Amino acid sequence: MMGDFSKVGMKVETAKESGNNAAHTPRLSKAVKKANANQSVQAYYDEVNVLITGFGSLKSSTNPTHNVSWNIAKSLPPALPANAAHPTRIRIIVHSQPIAASYNGVLAATAQIFDTYPPADLVLHLDTAADGAHYSLLQVAHRADYVRPDTTRRYADVGGQPGYWSDCRDLLRSSAAPKDVLTRWRSDAPHDTDLRTSTTTTHSLSEYQLYASLAHVQNSSRNQDLEWNKRTMVSSMLMPAAEDLQRTKNVVISLVYALVDSRRFRGSDYDDDDD
């Protein structure tokens, strides 16, 4: 049975094995120390599994745009070691291929991901925002009203959605606690990085992907699938399309630490007072 964070018996690489993360120096700010002191640990655990995805190129005949999220995802180290600032060892599992930037591609990849990989404690989807200059953690996602075509010039097919979507609310919300995560993220990310959380719905492909994963996790819980259940945290992050790759990689690593640490010290249930 999977608890707040499961152990699935997988080898976790040591700090030496994940040496490409050596440049990431942990810091524990006063704000984070205060948060840790004021919040009781929900469950003790030694290691967690984080599953990360990235989108492929946004190819269309009228606007070919490269999506850097896959380059960032596949460059991440296989493990993040525990240290004084971050007491949990983290194993990173990157999906084997980029997600096709289409509605059907998202649905197919969602089914494949949850059927193929061992249980993860955190699923983090990465995408780029072509017109954005900041990093944003998406908090909410709608089931319907995706009126814009994808890169294949096709629209979201309501009839093609999994049947269990109709059992879910129209608006689903990530269980990440936005204020707590943002405090930790800002404490550890590269200096002067514009980091935000967002509850604004744009009915984008990223939002569609977030809904698909949240709905799948909720359906697994209803079916008493104790491997993938509603305790699995699902999040989605948008990054600037024209940002330095190494800087972006460090921002993503900082977010992974922030999400895991927040889950450890704060818990997983969303609190409206924390919005």
- Report the span from N to C terminus: 31 Å
Strand content: 15-25%
Largest sheet, described in full?
7 strands, mixed
H/E element sequence:
HEHEEHEEEEHEHEH
Strand order of the largest sheet: 2-3-1-4-9-5-8
What class would the helix/strand composition place it in?
Answer: alpha/beta
State the total count of DSSP E strands: 9
- Residue-averaged pLDDT, rounded? 81
Low-pLDDT windows of residues: 1-23, 40-44, 270-275
* Bulk shape: globular
In angstroms, what is the radius of gyration?
18 Å
Helix content: 25-40%
By DSSP (H or I, 4+ residues per run), the number of helices equals 6
Defining key terms:
alpha/beta; disordered C terminus; two-stranded antiparallel sheet; single chain; 7-stranded mixed β-sheet; 6 helices; globular; 275 residues
Kindly describe this structure.
- The protein has helices spanning 30-38, 69-75, 103-116, 178-188, 205-222, 245-266; strands at 47-54, 79-80, 89-94, 122-129, 135-138, 140-142, 171-173, 195-198, 233-240.
- The chain is an alpha/beta fold and 275 residues long.
- A hairpin with an 8-residue loop joins strand 2 (79-80) and strand 3.
- The radius of gyration is 18 Å and the shape is globular.
- Helix 2 packs across helix 6 and helix 3 (103-116) packs parallel to helix 5.
- Helix content is 29%, strand content 17%.
- It has a seven-stranded mixed beta sheet with strand order 2-3-1-4-9-5-8, with helices on both faces.
Summarize the structure.
The protein contains 6 helices and 9 strands; from the N terminus they run αβαββαββββαβαβα.
